[in-house]
Every structure is written in C-alpha cells, then in structure tokens.
Amino acid sequence: MDMNSVLTVVLVLIGAPIIGCLASGIDRRITARLQGRVGPPILQPYYDVRKLLSKDNMIVNESQNFYVVVYLIFIILSLLMLVFKADILMIVFVYTVASIALIVGGMSTGSPFARVGSSREIMAILSYEPVLLLYALAIYLLTGTFKLSAVLDASTPVLMYTPLIFIAMLVVLNIKLKKSPFDYSTSHHAHQELVKGMLTEYSGPGFAIIEIAHFYEYVFLTGLIFLFWAANPLIGALIAIVAYLLVIVIDNITARVYWQWMLKLSWTFLLAISIVNIAFLYFSGVKIV
Amino acid sequence: MSLAKSPWIIHVNCNSCNGCDIELVACLTPLYDAERFGLLNIGTPKQADIMVVTGSVNYKNVNVLKNIYNQIPDPKVVLAVGACASTGGIFHDCYNVVGGADQIIPVDAYVPGCTPRPEAIIDGVVAALSILENKKKGNIRGKEVKLTGKEVPSNA
Amino acid sequence: MIETTIMLLLAVPLLFSFLFLGLGKSMYKILAWAFFIFGVFASVQLIRDGVGVYVITGSEFAMFENIVLVLEVLVVLFIIGVAAKYKNWPTLVLGLISAAVFAYTFTNVPAVESASFNIDQFSQVMILIVNIVGTAIILFATGYMDEYEEHRHLNRQRTFYFTMSFFLASMNGLVMVDTLGWLFLFWELTTLCSFVLISYNMDKEGIDNGFRALALNLVGGIALSVGIILLATNYDISTLSGIGTYAGTDAAAMAAVALPVALLCIGGFAKSAQMPFQSWLLGAMVAPTPVSALLHSSTMVNAGVFLVVKLVPAFAGTGLGTAIAVYGGFTFVMCSALALSQRNAKRVLAYSTIANLGLIIASAGIGTPLAVAAAIMLILFHAISKALLFLCTGEIEHTIESRDIEDMPGLIKKAPLLSTLAALGMVSMLLPPFGVLLTKWVSMEAASENPIVIIFLILGSALTTVYYAKWLGTIMSSTMDKNEVHHKKPETYFSLSFLGLSIVVTSILVFQIYDYFVRPQVEILLNAAPNVSGQAGIIASEIGEFAYAAIFAVIALAIILYLATKSMFTPRKADYYMCGENNMERDKLMFRNGLCSYDKSNVSNIYLQNTFGESKLTTIGYAISIILIVITLAGGVL
C-alpha cells in the first residue's frame, strides 16, 4: 500500500460521513420545505449523532451491538472497495454482509417490532439483490471484466447502453435508502404501527453507529449510480445527485406500500426490464472499452 | 449543548381525552414546526430523551407508564402536559384514577392548561432541555421505577 | 505405497463395520474415536502418497472381479427380495430391469483384463471429505443415537453403525476406482446403504421413502449401466479416465460419445437428487440426522456431481455441456425458491443441498477451466458446511424437541455454542469470505458468458440469501426465555466444533487448496489451467478478483472493535419495547391483554407459501426439468 492509497482511505473514512451527513440534512430540509415547513438546520443529523453518542447505551442483550459494528465496518469496506475500483460482484456480496448484519441485529433483540421490520427487510433483499447483481453483469458485458477500473477508464458512459437497468437501480436506491414508498422495515414516520422497525431496540451509541453507517451508505449507494456516467466524473456526480433528489421527492409524494407490492414490482417489472437490457447487451455484443 | 439540539420525544397518552394529544401533534405541523429545533416525535423509548405524558394516570396504565419510563436511557426528563397529567385534572377523584403523572414517576416540568396551546408545549420542551443538560452535567440518573403492589385495585 | 493406502481405505472401514456389528453398545464410542483418527490419518496418507494409478491384473484381478460379480448379484437379489417382501412393485420392476441389464452386461459385453484405481487430486479431495467429515459424523452419531432411539423406541444401532461404516468403504471405492464396472458396483452399494438407512425407523413413512429413494436411484443406476454398456461395446472404453482420453479435445470424438456420456450424467443427476429426482432426497429426511449429514448432503449425493465433473472433458464446450449447465442452473434456482417456503429446517437444508449440487452441475456444464475449478471447490466447501448444518439441526432438535424454524427463536440463549456453530454454518453458506460464497462468485464469473445460466445463478443466489438470512436471524434472536438447556455430550460437540473449525480453516486456506488440488485436476481434465492468478489472500481471474483475506481481516477488526467498545458506553439492560405492556409482575415478557390475563407476543417469518410453495412450484419444476433432460439426451443423440 503506497502513500497515495493510505491518503485515499483516510479521505474516504473522514469525507464520506461528512458528505452523507450533509446529504441527510439536505434531505430533511427539502422534505420540510415540500411540506411547507422551515425544517431543521442542515447539520441536524450531526447534532443527532452527537447527542446519541452522549446518551446511555440501553441494550436488550450483549450481542446486539456486535451486529452494528459489523454493519458499519462492512459498509465502509464496500465503499472503500468501490473507491479502489474492485470487483463489482464482490462489492455486492460484501454489501450483502452489511445488510444481513443489520437484519440479524434487529432480529437478535427478539422484539416483535424488530422482527417484523427485519422480516420485511429480508423481503427487500429478495427484491433488490437480483437487480444489483444484474447491474454487475451489465458492467461485465460492457467492459469484459467485473473490475470497476475498466468502467472508469472507458470513454463511453455505461448509461448509454443500460437505460433500463438505470431505472431499476433508481428503485433499488429508493428501497435501500428506506424511503417511502418502501420505508416499511424501519422509518421515522411509521411509529404508529412499526415503532421503529428493526432498529426499535437500539439506543444511544449503538444507534449512533447505525446513523453513521447510514451516512457511509448514502455515499456508497449514490456511488453506484455515479458509475453509470463515470466517463465524465462531473456528469456522473450530477446524475448521482439528481437521482438522490428524485428519491427524496418520491419519498414525499408517495405513501407506504405493502412489501408484497414491492416484491411483485421487483420480480415482474424491474427484473423484466433488467433482463431485457441484459439480453440487448448480450446479443448486440456492444463494448465500451 | 450536545443534547439540547436534538430533543427526541416520546409521547405517552395515559388517560387523555385526546385534547392535549392533538395540541402536541399540532406542534409538529407546518404552523409551529417544532422540527426547526431538531425535535422529533420518536416511536420507541429506547431512542427518546423527553417523555411527554398527557392525561391522568389510572390503575390500568400504571404499568405502561413505569415500563416506558424505565426503558428510556439516561439522561432523560419527563414533561407532564396538561392539567390531567400534572394533577389529575377534572378526573382527580374518579374511582379508577391514581392522579397526575408525578404520583408514579419523577416529573421534571409541567405544562398547565386544558388544553395547553402548542406554544406552551414548545415552551415546556425548551424548559425541559435545560434540565436535560443539567442532568447530563451532573450525571443524574433516573431511578428504575418498581412496582409497589398497589397498581391493581383490589376489586379489579 | 499408494496401493497399501487404497487397500486400507477400502478394508479398514469394512473392518470397522464388522466391529460395530460384533461389539456391544458400550464400545461404540471408542470405536468411533478410533475410526475418526484412522480416517484423518489414512486420508492424509493418501495425499502424501501423491497421485497415481494402481492397476490390478492377473490372478489378483480375477479374484477381485469374482468378488465384484458376486456382490453385484447379491445387490440385485437383495433389491428384488425386499421389493417383493414389502410388495413395492415399481421397485421390483426396476430391480428386474437392473437384473436384466446386469445379465446382458455379463453375457454380451467384452470382459476387461484388468481394473485400476486412479488417484488424482479430485479423488484426494473426495477422500478427505469422506474420511474426515464422514468419520466425524459417525463420531457425532455416538452422542446422538441413544437419545434418538429412546424417543422412537428403537434398538437398531448395530444396523446403523454397520451400514454407516460399510457406506464409507463403498464411498471410498467409488471415488477412487477408475474401472466403470467396479464403479457401478460401488454406486449400487451406496444406493443400498442409503435405502437401509432411510428406512431405519422401520415405520411406514420410513419404508415408503426408502423405496422411493431406491427406485429413483435405480432409474439413475440403469441409465448409468446402459451408458457403461454403450461405452464398452461401441468404443471399447472401460474406465472413467478413458472417456476423457477418448474424447480429448476432438469435437468429432466428443460427439460420438455424447449419448453414453449423457446417460452417465443422468445417472449422476439421479444420485444428486436433481429435479425431477429431488423427491427422494426430501423423503430421505425422515432418516436420523447423521444419515442426512453423511449420505444426503456431504458424501453420497456428491457422488453424482463427482461423476459429472469427471466427465467434463467429454462435453466441455459442446451443446451437451450447455444443456447440462442450463439444467443445473434451473435446479439451482428452482430448489432455492422452494427452500424459501419451507419452515422445516431439514427440508430447507435438503432443498439447499439440491440447489448447490445444481450449481456444481451448472459449473461443470459450462466447462471452462475456471468453472470446473469452481465446481470442484464447491464440492469441498459445500460438503463441510452442509454436514455441520445438518448435525446442528439434529442437535437443535434434541435441544428444543422441534425442527421447525418457527420454534427456534431464543436458541442463542438456550444453547449458545450450538447456535453459534449453526450460525457459522449458515454464514459460510451465504456470505463472503467463506468458501461456498467465494466459489459461488467464481462460478458466477465463469458463467457470465452464458446469459441463461448466469441469470439463473443470480436469481438463485438472491433466494439463497433470503432463506438463510431468515433462519439465521431466528436462531440468533433472543427471546427472554431463560431456561438454558444443558445438553452437551463431548462426542457431538467435538464433531460440531471440528467441522466449524474446518470451515474457517479451509476458507482461509482457499488459495492453497486451489493451488494444490484444483489447478492440477483441471489441467488433467481439460489440458488447460484456469486463468487464476494472484497469491494467497486474493483470488483473481482474468475478469475479476476477490480479496478474501481483506474480508477476514475486517471481520477480525470488527470483533476487536466490538470487544474494545463493549464496556465503553456503560451498557444498561432493559426489556424490549412492547408499548409498555410488558407485565411487570411476572416475567416482563408477556403482554397483558384486555382480560387481565397474559399473552406471549409472537412474530413469524415470511414464507411466501402462495408464491414459492411446493404445491405451486413442484409441478412446473418437474415439467421444465424433464424437458431439459430430454434436451440433454437429444444433445447426446444429435
């Protein structure tokens, strides 16, 4: 590991949560404005985390915070692997570890609300995992390798040949950010029926770590969208930001749906358009490098 | 000032007529927008800082109140909103009513009125915040509230 | 020295089986320990002997050949005998057909002059699995069977240990022998052991399922023997390696042997319980758990995929290969979907086994060096993980008296070590950096050129994640039940811990395993090494790389971080939130309901019975898989 990559690691470790925190703050602000409110300060997520860190750690059992640590670390690992242009298929698998850790963490508390939330989140995995893997396959078909370095070196953006997968990935972004209409596993807004879903039993520092991991996750997920136009980083970043804003708007204009509905949407519409896109890539044999 | 900037409240409706509840929810509406101060109405006591109690306490919900109080991590404050939660209100001499919330758990601040206006509730929350900060500084912890054996009336 | 080791591997398990038969119950534990130690030493010795071929000729051959013939006649007679005794007509008919085929072989097929044992790296891997994992399972059984029999009022342990040890001997023969005629004998012997062990309980359910397994495996056996006859009469091939040599890389020769090869593969499919043969493996779950672990997940069903992988040179890159790949991929996705709807832990594991064997077959069918390497590694990793999971399920059943996943919440509190080991087994099935996932990754990358197979693999992979995550979460969830169950026997827990440790060690040493066993084997099979570069810590193909060492390091980091911060934030315990309705006067667990009595809160997992249920999918699965098999056969004929 040379000096440069050490520097990159440090930069990601420090920079990503700052960006994620701001993104989260902007989200709350935009949401407030869309509802005709003033809204909290942009730095509100930071205040929240700071407060949570200074509170007591109230736990149901000893192991529940272990899963949180795994969740955080594997989110960071998948983000770092994205930054270091690793194998996209491997990134998806590493990212799955993080998701599973949070789910098992929720279930490990034994709380009925957490188990409801976790069960639904497992169904979310069933909905988005195939799309993520098909996205990885599309990258392979376009570049001839699963390594992301080829995508970043290519002169043509991935999006040119994968518009349908892009649409599917927008929905995946929506599911993974746990925004309405897919915020049924854990949500600020569903406390009447869900309390806090799979995060119900987390408090204080444990919950703070989850929030920090969410900051990293925001960056990671928008990073996946960024890849669609990595040929020109500026446009790529713009697309990622627009996608994020779109998700916020969708969050505000839709109501929560049943998880069954999401599963149907994913396994019929999303998979169908993704497979059509893959079939096109396969039969046309188009390459971007 | 690490606590005052993000007060998360949990709302416990003991025996309320819903008047205070509606006013409390009004605090979050665009007109009053309590989220300006970072205030969130959170569903689970595990993540809450301020416990907002409305309505008088009766025999049926003593347990609920104690359980939820015990499940809030320290530092925490309790805010009694409305006449009923503060003193028992017009229900104070009902056969099934224990009294105000302070009969059961330590209450830090009271918001009087039947019903209190949203401004008053927000004012109460702000008052609670400084208590919260003091508790953090002084490392004052809420004691676990135990059953006393008189929660269920003998004729139940 | 290799001859001695081979003979030891055949003779000693046989000796042990007769010792089990002759000695009393009190000696079983000692015998099992001795057997385990023998298994470890013998298999390591075989690896130290290196690769080689051991040819038996002359009078020695004549003697062995006569034994083989006698045994084959006995097997057929036994099958016909039991089928007649229990009036199971389909099996009887199949047994008679087998007898006819055998008679035809005896009279019409040119006799061979010699027989050979071929020890290559793949056989070494299989020997390791059979003798180390297998004997560990027998060791587990000595701590398990007493209680099992007590529940069911049985006293048949003599039969049990005899058959298990006898099975190990035949399995050893199966993976080492090169002569097709002998291979067939060992093949039928394992089928027979499977039948005896499935009907172990001697109730109607057990016997019915035993006969189903026997009948379906006889179908596979008939396909196998017809394939062997075709090879011997038309092409004068009498050894397994001879098929590869004959086919070589010559497309015309490959096309010529395609039909017998397809038949052999169908024999393999039946043995590996691929769709449409899957029902026998599901039925086999009535057997005691050690049987499921030994025969129906880690060894016997692997014989089928073992054969298919050995045949790779005869179909790599042909239409037949593609058909096999699509067929395997289809089984993978279909059985993963079926597993989603199951709440019986053993059925989940059974479907998962079938699915993973399908994945192996798909990888073999793709036939590129990378894919074949993935197939061989998957056999190894899957065998260890699945053996552990089956044994854990058995032990869980004895701990909580149920194998229903919905009864398992709180297991982590009742039996912490057991749950941790079961969790390790599940995690190793679905998450990096463990072997199964790593090899799944390799096979996905290898399959990426074939759109149908890769889409099957992607869907199946997502489904696999879901059904294991569900179960994992359930056993790790801590209800407030505090009754810890003390149920620790040294034999059972030693085997479980040993298998758990093996998962971790083999996953860490994955590159070394690849380098030592898999690369040479793929070179033998395909005359080309997989394009895998890299060093220990990273497995890199030309289209991707997987830094598994980094993930291990990160897991270690997570554990250290957790332990370091564990006491930092002054943790305080509280009960979980139930809207404040936890009853304070009792165990703080149950809801007080409106009638002032108490209810337990209960949340079950999502099983999607209406979408992925057996009644919905099985028929479709049968139809499509039969069509695919017909296509495979047609690929062989045309």
What order do the helices and strands come in, and which of them pair?
The complex is a heterotrimer of chains A (289), B (156) and C (638).
Chain A: H1 3-34, H2 44-53, E1 57-59, H3 64-83, H4 88-108, H5 112-143, H6 149-153, H7 163-176, H8 204-226, H9 233-253, H10 259-284
Helix pairs in contact in A: 1-3, 1-8, 1-9, 2-8, 3-4, 3-8, 4-5, 5-7, 5-10, 7-9, 7-10, 8-9
Chain B: E1 8-13, H1 19-28, E2 40-41, E3 50-54, E4 57-58, H2 62-70, E5 77-81, H3 82-87, E6 97-99, E7 109-111, H4 118-138
Parallel strand pairs in B: 1-2, 1-3, 3-5, 5-7
Antiparallel strand pairs in B: 4-6
Chain C: H1 2-22, H2 28-49, E1 52-56, H3 58-85, H4 89-108, E2 115-119, H5 121-152, H6 157-176, H7 180-198, H8 204-235, H9 240-247, H10 251-271, H11 279-283, H12 289-298, H13 300-310, H14 312-315, H15 319-340, H16 345-366, H17 369-400, H18 411-414, H19 416-430, H20 435-447, H21 451-476, H22 490-508, H23 510-526, E3 539-541, E4 544-546, H24 548-565, E5 571-573, E6 591-592, E7 598-599, H25 609-612, H26 614-637
Antiparallel strand pairs in C: 1-2, 3-4, 6-7
Question: What value does the average pLDDT of chain A take?
Answer: 90
Number of domains of chain B: 1
Element pattern of chain B in H and E: EHEEEHEHEEH
Shape of chain B: globular
Strands of chain A, count: 1
Q: Averaging pLDDT over every residue of chain B, what do you get?
A: 86
Output the helix-strand order of chain A.
HHEHHHHHHHH
* CATH-level-2 architecture of chain B: 3-Layer(aba) Sandwich
Poorly predicted runs of 5 or more residues of chain A: none
- Counted by DSSP, the helix tally of chain B is 4
State the helicity of chain A in percent bands.
over 70%
Q: What is the total number of structural domains of chain A?
A: 1
Taken as a percent bin, the fraction of beta residues of chain B is: 15-25%
CATH topology of chain B: Rossmann fold
Quaternary status: heterotrimer
Radius of gyration of chain A: 19 Å
Radius of gyration of chain B: 15 Å
The poorly predicted ranges of chain B are none
Helix content of chain B: 25-40%
Count of helical stretches of chain A: 10
Q: How far is it from the N-terminal to the C-terminal residue of chain A, by CA? A: 28 Å
